[in-house]
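Z., the sequence and structure:
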Amino acid sequence: MWTVVPYLVPLGIVVAANLGVTRRGWRSLTYLSLALLSLLAWSAGLFLVVGSWLLRAGQQAEIREDVASMAPYGIAIVVTGLLSFLCLLPAVRRLLARALPIDPDSPVHATALVLSLYLAATSLSLFLIPTDTMLDSFQSTSLGSGALVSGQVVMLLFALAGVGLGTRRNVRQTLQRLGVRWPTLRQLLLAGGLILGFLVLDYTVAVLWQRLWPGQYQRVMEGNERLFSPFASFAGAIVLGLSAGIGEETLFRGALQPRLRIPLTALLFTVGHVQYALSPALVEILIIGLVLGWLRERTNTTTCMLTHAGYNFLDAILMQFFP
């Protein structure tokens, strides 16, 4: 449950943005909160950059080595803060509206742009960590069911709050906006075919990756086997499949894709899988994200959930048999 606490502020901003659609006071509070968030990010990034330069100018070699990597993080945060502030300018949103199906006057869409930017920046910043360091951390970490479910609950809460459950929409309207409806038999068969296709893709990428870059493949797989080892059982695979299928698909395909379109949503989905480091697995995740995006357009979010859940479930079960 404590996993949700750091997200209470951005969740509160999302709720305020939905209230701000019809109430001027909440709209002003939304933009003020987003502006303060941008200022905080910019200030924190600048502090890291300046602090790293000052410490490297000191005489302690060990400190200089420890803080040498702070500057890139600081620069990334500064850029993110500036970009997020630009998203608050109506002229910038009107420009973005030429490529994205957003309402430049909507506080909800402005909030979605800013928070999506922070989501991307947070994930991408982890790729600044040296690959060996990142993989070492995964090898010493095991992801528990509680942490996994809590993370997916956070995604679900953002999706529900983002589309206005309880503020602008009732339950039926929310499910309709998210694309959650009973799948047809044809859609179930399509989901089954895509699950098999994803497994073939996974196996193909694994074989090619192992042959072309065996060292990297071994390290990444060792880290992920350790990270997801609690889900190698039948029950664990069910938890992994359902939590990721419901949480991620509700947020990415249900809430975000109708506003960010398939390519941007798939990119956000991809960079969130930092456990694979910079490897061919990210290309696989991107392909899966694009296909799920296409599936959402052709069917509904429920079919995407079933496809994602089924693939994750079987992948977890078959993990020990992969090369």
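The mean pLDDT is 88. The longest helix spans residues 234-271.

Let me know what you think.
H.
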